[in-house]
Amino acid sequence: MISDPTTDFPAFGSAQSNGAADYPGLDDWRSKPISQQPTWEDPAEFEAALAELSSAPPLVFAGEVDQLRAQLAAAARGEAFLLQGGDCAETFAGATANKISAKVKTILQMAVVLTYGASLPVVKMGRMAGQYAKPRSSDTETRDGVTLPSFRGEIVNGFDFTPESRRHDPHRMVQAYNTSAATLNLVRAFTQGGFADLRSVHAWNQGFMKNPAYSRYEEMAGQIDRAVRFMDAAGVDFSALRRTDFFTAHEALLLDYERALTRIDSRSGLPYSTSGHFLWIGERTRNLDGAHVDFLSKVRNPIGVKLGPTTRPEDALALIDRLDPEREPGRLTFITRMGAEKIREHLPAVVEAVRDSGAQPLWVTDPMHGNTVTAANGYKTRRFDDVMDEVQGFFEVHRAAGTYPGGLHVEMTGDDVAECLGGSDPIDESAFADRYETLVDPRLNHQQSLEMAFLVTEALSHRGRTA
Ligand code: PEP
Ligand code: MN
Description:
This protein is an alpha/beta fold. The chain has helices spanning 13-17, 43-54, 62-76, 97-118, 163-166, 171-192, 198-209, 218-233, 255-260, 291-298, 313-323, 343-357, 384-401, 432-435, 446-461; strands at 81-86, 122-127, 140-143, 146-149, 247-251, 262-264, 271-273, 278-281, 303-307, 332-336, 362-365, 372-374, 380-382, 405-411. An eight-stranded parallel beta barrel has the order 1-2-5-8-9-10-11-14, surrounded by five helices. Helix 11 (313-323) packs across helix 12 (343-357) and helix 12 runs parallel beside helix 13 (384-401). The two termini are 39 Å apart.
């Protein structure tokens, strides 16, 4: 994960042994309106969990976070492309070698296709190793006349519909930290230990192409194949391509958790949330005067903000002023999730206002969250065509505005689940009975994710051309 071995470590030296960082302003969020937080029952258990997190080793290092910021700055300038992918909600039971490797593998496979299509470096990032807290539209859930607290992600409570499981248990924050550490350890091993070798990633993609349903991508797959062979024949040193940077991201929803994992970087003296490299603020918690915007304005990590269809141009400008007053390259990413039907109507004014202000955030599309529908059996699902239509709309809007569509944020898994409908080897609702596994939002499966990478690549390779 560290591409520059000369980076000046160790960071967090002094603060680490003294527990959570102290820094002016880091606790200002406590006096701001805050939503989507748990109601822990036992104050002693809560304090004990925070004390444990406060003295725990950081999951990521400030040097890595700084490198990521530089790579995101390149993406914002149009010199790289960001791929963010992973579960809506990670689970503790899902942190197995097989599931983690399938997810990393799928992201790497998508990245190879996108790298070819964009002819640019792809910044790879998992919604992984920390994506455990979920915002919910209601505090409670009622089934057959029984009302219990809603499931808020495994960092807060369990999915089973019993009073014991739905209790907000502070010890789960420690379990989330430990499971994140185990996940990140394997991700680092895979991406640094040879698993990410370009030639094996390419070979996996050839497996995907064996399915006749994807024959329309044969030409592009053939081009990628020839490019890899050419590099091999020309004597390119593949040892450099055996490793890759891979960053982690999650929604910074649970501020007590983020605060307890915040450390002061001993090199710069500045606070970093060490729970992950990149943190984002969700659509439900991005209010300007709220606690989430305040806390994230105080840490040095690159941060994202989800922007839904009701975002006004002035909201985006005010968020830039609050979160990136210095207009620091790579600091701020806007992740738009407007829905396929709305993006062409709502996004242009926002993008144009930001462009005209002179700010240069990284623009990323999340084509999942604005396209959720309910299937006949009541399950949440998304149609592959709607998802792709939003991606297409995102490219069209940026092309028209002269801004750069710099990334893709998707809910996906490496497994063969059936949660989203459609794709060239189509999933229909009859498959839900056996292969619908997600606890919260529906994810693209392995095949749908790769197909999306081919389709986005087509859109990217047309990007420079005038319509
Ligand atoms: C999510 O990313 O899972 C999520 C809840 O997104 P949003 O904040 O965009 O609704
Ligand atoms: Mn989601």
